Amino acid sequence: MKIKTKLQLSRISALATVCIFFASCLENEAEAENQAAEAAVPKPRVIELGDDVDEEQMRITKLIRERILKQVEKDAGKEAEAYTEELDTGASFEMLPVKGGGFRWQGEQADDVIDVTLTPFWMGKHEVTWEEYEPFMITELPREKDGQVVDFMRDTIEDDGKLLARPTPPYHPMTYGMPREGHPAVSMTQHGANKYCQWLSYKTGHFYRLPTEAEWEYACRAGSEAKFSWGDDAGKAGDYALINGDFSSAYDMPGQKKANAWGFHDMHGNVLEWTLDQHVENRLKYFGKNKVQDPWVIATKAYPHVTKGGYWKQDVEAIACAKRHPSKPEWKASDPQSPKSIWYHTDTPWLGMRVVRPVAIPSVEEMYRCWNSGVAEDGEMAKYR
Questions:
Q1: Of the CATH numbers 3.30.70.1450, 3.10.20.30, 3.90.226.10, 3.90.1580.10, which one belongs to the domain with range 50-371?
Q2: Average pLDDT for residues 265-272, to the nearest whole number?
């Protein structure tokens, strides 16, 4: 009887051990699922603005963000799908959705490899054209060199949209003798591109900015791990990119070449395109880790910034997905002003832009920094009045 009781107790003990083991496994599995779920939730950027915040620019940023949040309420329930943005200037442009995802980001140095995760966004199907950009560039109000309306007129203006910083008039046509209608807007500085995005956001109620370098390359690759969006065969470049032009050649209207797998045209060739990032030699060393969500190298100096995609006079090596083209002071070599304009790169008839619209609405601090880099002036921090 004692032996039988001991056997029963032993079985109960063993069964209890098994139950505890499986309970522990389920608990670990649940914990792992919770951790995975937490990792899948985008972490908002924390932007430290420091002491260089301009009160008027922050006021404008807050005002535009309020307009954007109201538009978000109107758009609630809509799917993130392709759309056409109609402007009150008569221009329009197409935006294509890019699902969140990741890719392995190889830098210029062998050890510079990062696994990037990106949250969803829309990107312009084509480069920004003159029809879109010129109504921002040409303003009827007299402005200071920093783009602000002159002091004696500010108190008479009730429309905040007219108080947005906008370019001073150019000294000569910025098309450089090339066609205008339907062609890419060119020669704006990164500051000019950022301020265009701010103006566009005010106009539309949608948050627009330049793409980060990672967003640009992710959209360019369109799922490809090859050198180009279409693969590694350089012989096919002519189907997708306007390149190898001679001294008398010019840019072309967007969309004349084949699109990549996600529907974007001219990610290779035609005109170089601005990104939001400062150029650093090694991104792995900059971020200090090999897995980064929504990377952005925030600007701290006037040069260099990253441009991507190559342009119509360059060869096929210059248009690879990973190729980077850092901005240079020489891009303003023929600007006779001192200090030089914060709005125009006078020597870059091949430099343009396209816009991005993140699905998630960022903080007011992030919006401020996207539109106000703080390094617009050559050699010193930009200071607003």
A1: 3.90.1580.10
A2: 98
